[in-house]
Design brief:
The chain is an alpha+beta fold. It has 6 helices and 10 strands. The structure holds a DNA duplex.
Length: 272
DNA sequence: CACCATGTTAGCGG
DNA sequence: GCCGCTAACATGGT
């Protein structure tokens, strides 16, 4: 579930909660989610300050003041939660960072996800980020850059949009939404798109992601107690998961097609 | 209970 | 090499 807007929302919310805090310890009940032993993670991060949070696609980077970084990917349904000192916590985090003031940052349900330690914060030197395509919100992601990503391909446009090696950050939900906004069918072969189509698609991708970010992303769980923003984007879906229901624009029944092993919902009338 | 949904990777065949 | 498909991973929801 967590796609780019959800991860950007985590970066924003957690910046307010724990940027500047000093890490005291790390613990893991699921060591497989780490790339170092739990006790080693504590040794590597203890007394370091969490200087910032940033994202590339669906990856979240927590940078430390000694130049190292922690890279998190939540995969299917992982989530993160910040808790002030002494706050009761119903769920059990599989990985947890404890700060010097006894507040905590927990990582939940990351059976398939991970939190990896790297001795660098240089994006180009972090193995987890190698081979990823451009982040669609980066300033240099222009319509021409999108055209470059699509050039020479024959695959269905949605399959390319979800391919993290070509474009980092879009999953099933936001690719469906962006294609609906762009009035392009998800099964259109990429080489059938005109330059105008690509311009429209570029604007639709940007617009869809920015709107979702401003609404707080679509995550199920609040980031901290009293978080009233996170999840606001869940009501913005116009096609994702709505197949069989009426198109909000024309009233036609939304269709569904399997693409890249995923269900794609679209309006067979609006989208061509 | 069986199945499907999510993201990613690896492997297979056209 | 490109493309589409499948299985595997874990879990909760129907």
């Amino acid at each position: 579930m967590p796609e780019l807007p959800e991860m950007v929302n985590y970066a924003r919310q957690l910046s307010g909660c724990c940027a500047g805090k000093t890490i005291a310890a790390a613990a893991a009940t699921r060591p497989r989610a780490l790339n170092v032993a739990p006790e080693e993670l504590t040794a590597l991060t203890a007394d370091r300050q969490l200087t910032g949070l940033k994202t590339h696609g669906k990856h979240l980077l927590l940078t430390l003041n000694d130049g190292a970084s922690l890279v998190c990917h939540l995969m299917l349904d992982g989530y993160m939660r910040y808790a002030a000192a002494g706050e009761p916590d119903a769920a059990h985090p599989q990985v947890q960072l404890t700060f010097a003031d006894q507040s905590t940052l927990g990582f939940y349900r990351i059976q398939l996800g991970h939190l990896h330690y790297f001795p660098t914060s240089d994006l180009a030197a972090i193995a987890d980020l190698q081979g990823l395509g451009p982040d669609p919100l980066a300033t240099d992601f222009t319509p021409a850059a999108l055209a470059g990503v699509l050039r020479g391909r024959r695959a269905m446009v949605k399959a390319i949009l979800m391919d993290q090696a070509r474009l980092a950050g879009l999953g099933n939900r936001y690719s469906d939404e962006a294609l609906f906004t762009a009035l392009i069918r998800p099964d259109r072969p990429v080489n059938s798109l005109s330059l105008d189509d690509i311009d429209t698609l570029h604007a639709a991708i940007r617009g869809t992601l920015e709107l979702a970010i401003e609404a707080g992303g679509g995550a199920e769980h609040p980031v901290f107690a009293g978080d009233g923003l996170t999840g606001g984007a869940r009501s913005q879906c116009r096609v994702y998961g709505r197949d069989g229901e009426a198109c909000l624009v024309c009233g036609h029944t939304l269709d569904v097609k399997r693409i890249g092993g995923r269900n794609s919902s679209f309006c067979p009338f609006c989208q061509t």
